[in-house]
Amino acid sequence: MAIILGIESSCDETSASICVDGQVINNKIASQFIHSGYGGVVPELASREHHKNIVPVVHEVLNDAEIKAKDLSAIAYTRGPGLLGALLVGSSFVKAMAASLNIPIIPVHHMKAHILAHFIDDPKPPFPFICLTVSGGHTQIVKVDSPMDYTILGQTLDDAVGEAFDKAAKLLGLPYPGGHIIDKLSVEGNPDAFQFSNTEMLHLNYSFSGIKTSILYFLRKEIKKNEFFIKENLNDLAASIQKSLIDMLMNKLVKAAKAQRINHIAIAGGVAANSELRKKLGVLAEENQWVTYIPDFQYCTDNAGMISISGHILYEKKQFGRLGETPLPRMPF
After folding, report:
1. Which has the closest alpha carbon to 178: 209, 207, 212?
2. CB within 8 A of 38, min separation 6: which ones?
């Protein structure tokens, strides 16, 4: 029996999970609300919160699974990419715990773990499949030929789509994180009310800096004419911004699927919870005869369930780490 403890601490979520023989038993997340007043994640504060949360969260998953630490086969953890201070808290804890138990550690790539989250529950995508990974820090289109074989087909060359959502929300005067608020406001808005220009990149790469600038200049111009413009058009603005960003994502995904002649399409990452993205995926699936896959919501955001299932896969292949390895904030894919 292989019992894997997974720990995620790449940004502002402290999470732990137990995976037993490939079955994720639990997934506990301690969120950090301290950043809401700063308009973004403050790295030093994130590290301090991880220090406070990591021991209680690990105790919680062990007790919940009725497993003792001495029964663990290995501990998987996020080595990168992410915030260095946050990664250090997780990696240091894991190395100390694993050394005391004399069990191996398994370093996990955060973005590959988002993709492997699709193997927690059924239905699981067959190989090869294409995964669009969309989060606050990353946007990638990846061809997945096996749990160990990935090819990046396209990625953002500047900002991630999740950051674009949050920055747009800030321009609308919404609290951080604002992406999910834009999603809620969009329900009662007209997605075709306003148009925003964007930078069309060659091939399958993305750029979201241009559309953020377009939104900024558009709002400045309209506010000069009517200081209450945002308040009077908030729902339409939210819906129009959301449609623009989702269309950018999906246009490239369609091109990637056609170029690779693959019809099994997966979506992962925190932005996978967006209602317009899911709706658009359903429409495109019908038009292109896709079979689509989206993990359960708890496995879309940063979580340890995806780390523990990744750890299980790597454990079976004996892909272990070394105590001397350091966290990699910009870990190569």
Report:
1. 212
2. 45, 176
> Helix 179-186 to helix 234-260 angle, to the nearest 10 degrees?
100
Q: What is the rounded CA–CA span in Å between residue 140 and residue 131?
A: 8
Tell me the domain boundaries of the chain. Answer: 3-115+299-316, 125-294
Q: Summarize pLDDT for 256-308 with one digit per residue, the tens.
A: 999 999 999 999 998 998 999 999 999 999 999 999 999 999 999 999 999 99
Give me 200's structure tokens. Answer: 């069309």
Class level of CATH domain 3-115+299-316: alpha beta
pLDDT score for 39: 75
> 0.85 cut: is pTM over it?
yes
33 pLDDT exceeds 90? no
CATH architecture of 125-294: 2-Layer Sandwich (3.30)
Token pair in block for residue 257 = 């699927």
